């Protein structure tokens, strides 16, 4: 399965690139990622959350990069869900912003993990990536993922509907939501 | 705290809900001293705007005192104790839309942007108390509210102007003003405004402030038309006269140079069969709007004129007079108000006495009486024009 999405961030390409290149940042806005840990100059360890099935982890390596312009990576070893990605950073015509073009490729296997992944992406697989990039833009432009009372959990607001009512959260709800 | 909440179609209920808390670093919490009911709330009330949920706190026109700020709010922007009016569109101040002063189209403030994008093609900003389509933010018909991006949104009031003189800077005064501004008014212009509700009244006053030669008010509620007349505008009752003929009479056969739709998706119609057509289509959701005012504004406007739409539309409409619009070189302009753009300059106009926002207030009610307020405002009872709620 191949997913593509794009967004425009009102920051220079060097800054947008640098944020993505610090791969540990990916988990702050990509819903399915629990954690990315940098293990070497070009290698990293990725942990996907429950929506991808329990305990889906893999190692990845950067296979191509042009500072300020492009990063490409792919999973290595025996990944449960072999995958690869490319992100390109292109100066936008307005002279201040950067276009971010992402391509992700998943090799979805059979079995339980494959089912969980397929279920996660659902009928509109590109929607997840669109939402990931919206949060990426929020973090870079405003400093954080934006929260509301109806959708308080940032990137963990997996299922947009039904959401909780648009009224303030109780202490109990806040404490529960703060759990990882 | 107590808050007025949506409780299903045509029902609001004042309930106990938790106090708001800081969720993002740039949030502030405001203790609300005055809040208002808006014509936009009526579109939510009867369910014409989708994605409302039982328990949603209503209200997007509010002001009060800052009682808490998040760690990301710099002290030179906002502090505890500041008295503020809060603009209804939530804007981040940093995206391309905000940079272009298109605050109600902010690209970052709506956590449900994906849903809005499906409805509208591209997402729209977050709005307080205005459905989950615009973010699911709790509203301001309450004792307290959480205000995101508090370092860039609220307008500080440093003079001793009373609440009721500045409260409407949160929405309807800037909205009426933007409606007139979009008309690019020239000194010879006759401006006709459909809707003599609070928004229409401010559009009329703004048209005059911007130099229009003559301002006409179209509505059917005699008390609302009287209010417009007392402010110096010319009333036209669409229940009593044929609007187009009357407008031709008032403009020497030319038609108004500029027309403002301050009615929106729930217009009523003098002609029973046309009204029935749209009512049925709206009821079965084959059409989401009853666009009588918009159609009439387009048909009435002189060739080459501007039709400025500040009445709210939410979805799809039928029988749009595209032929009149195209063949007669009309310009259509519209938008949810970019309130932050107008708050400062309009505050100065209020201070200078050029605009009196208090003239439309007919009712002050305690928050507990909000359901009654919705009733009389919706049904045009007790000469109700604008209600200010005191939490
Ligand atoms: N663009 C924005 O940012 C913005 C902001 C606030 C409100 N609004 C919208 O502005 C509109 C008016 O708001 P309001 O608070 O004044 O509401 P309101 O309901 O009090 O006023 C609407 C008025 O229109 C009249 N009307 C109905 N059908 C008509 C017709 N066919 N021709 C002429 N008049 C007709 C009604 O009698 C009423 O007086 C609403 O649609 C509201 O949602 C837009
Ligand atoms: Zn309003
Ligand atoms: Zn913005």
Automatic annotation (TrEMBL), chain A:
Task: Extract the InterPro entries matched here.
Answer: COQ10_START, ORF3, START-like_dom_sf
- What region holds the Coenzyme Q-binding protein COQ10 START domain? 11-133
Checking Pfam families in the record gives:
Polyketide_cyc
Do you know which CDD domains this protein is assigned to?
Answer: SRPBCC_8 (cd07817)
Report residue spans for region: Disordered: 147-180
Q: What is this protein called?
A: Coenzyme Q-binding protein COQ10 START domain-containing protein
Per the UniProt record, the lineage of the source organism begins with: Bacteria, Bacillati, Actinomycetota, Actinomycetes, Micromonosporales
UniProtKB/TrEMBL annotation, chain B:
User: Which cofactors does this protein require?
Assistant: Zn(2+)
Q: Name one GO molecular function term.
A: zinc ion binding
Q: Which residues form the Alcohol dehydrogenase-like N-terminal domain?
A: 25-154
Domain named Alcohol dehydrogenase-like C-terminal: residues: 198-268
Which keywords accompany this UniProt record? Metal-binding, Oxidoreductase, Zinc
**What protein family is recorded?**
Belongs to the zinc-containing alcohol dehydrogenase family.
What this protein is called in its record is: Glutathione-dependent formaldehyde dehydrogenase
């Amino acid at each position: 399965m191949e997913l593509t999405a794009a967004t425009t961030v009102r920051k220079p390409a060097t800054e947008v690139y640098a944020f993505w290149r610090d791969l540990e940042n990916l988990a702050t806005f990509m819903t399915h990622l629990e954690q990315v840990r940098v293990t070497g100059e070009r290698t990293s360890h990725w942990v996907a959350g429950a929506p991808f099935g329990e305990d889906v982890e893999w190692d990845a390596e950067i296979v191509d990069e042009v500072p300020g312009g492009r990063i490409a990576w792919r999973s290595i070893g025996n990944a449960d869900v072999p995958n690869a990605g490319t992100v390109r950073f292109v100066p936008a015509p307005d002279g201040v912003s950067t276009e971010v073009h992402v391509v992700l490729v998943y090799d979805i296997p059979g079995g339980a993990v494959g089912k969980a992944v397929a279920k996660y992406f659902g009928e509109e697989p590109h929607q997840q990536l669109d939402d990931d990039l919206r949060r990426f833009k929020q973090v870079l432009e405003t400093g954080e993922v934006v929260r509301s009372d109806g959708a308080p959990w940032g990137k963990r607001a997996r299922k947009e509907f039904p959401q909780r009512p648009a009224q303030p959260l109780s202490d109990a709800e806040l404490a529960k939501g703060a759990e990882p | 705290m107590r808050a007025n909440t949506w409780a299903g179609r045509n029902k609001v209920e004042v309930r106990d809900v938790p106090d708001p808390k800081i969720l993002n670093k740039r949030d502030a919490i405001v203790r609300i001293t005055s809040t208002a009911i808006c014509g936009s709330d009526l579109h939510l009330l009867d369910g014409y705007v989708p994605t409302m949920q039982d328990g949603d706190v209503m209200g997007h026109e509010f002001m009060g005192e800052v009682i808490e700020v998040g760690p990301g709010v710099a002290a030179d922007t906002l502090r505890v104790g500041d008295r503020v009016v809060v603009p209804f569109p939530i804007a981040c101040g940093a995206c391309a839309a905000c940079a272009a002063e298109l605050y109600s189209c902010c690209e970052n403030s709506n956590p449900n942007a994906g849903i809005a994008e499906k409805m509208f093609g591209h997402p729209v900003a977050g709005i307080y108390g205005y459905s989950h389509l615009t973010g699911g933010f709790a509203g301001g018909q309450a004792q307290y509210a959480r205000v995101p991006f508090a370092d860039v949104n609220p307008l500080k009031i440093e003079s001793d102007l009373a609440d009721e003189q500045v409260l409407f800077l949160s929405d309807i005064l800037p909205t009426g003003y933007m409606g007139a501004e979009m008309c690019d008014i020239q000194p010879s212009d006759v401006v006709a405004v459909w809707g003599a509700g609070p928004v229409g009244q401010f559009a009329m006053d703004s048209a005059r402030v911007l130099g229009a030669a003559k301002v006409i008010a179209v509505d059917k509620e005699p008390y609302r038309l009287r209010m417009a007349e007392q402010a110096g505008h010319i009333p036209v009752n669409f229940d009593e006269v044929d609007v187009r003929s009357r407008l031709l009479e008032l403009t020497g056969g030319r038609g108004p140079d500029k027309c403002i739709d301050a009615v929106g998706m729930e217009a009523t119609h003098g002609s029973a069969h046309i009204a029935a057509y749209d009512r049925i289509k709206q009821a079965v959701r084959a059409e989401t709007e009853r666009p009588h005012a918009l159609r009439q504004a387009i048909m009435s406007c002189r060739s080459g004129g501007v039709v400025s739409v500040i009445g709210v539309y939410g979805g799809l409409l039928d029988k749009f007079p595209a032929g009149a619009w195209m063949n007669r070189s009309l310009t259509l302009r519209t938008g949810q108000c970019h309130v932050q753009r107008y708050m400062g300059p309009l505050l100065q106009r209020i201070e200078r006495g050029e605009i009196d926002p208090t003239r439309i207030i007919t009712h002050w009610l305690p928050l507990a009486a909000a359901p009654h307020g919705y009733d009389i405002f919706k049904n045009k009872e007790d000469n109700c024009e604008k209600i200010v709620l005191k939490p």
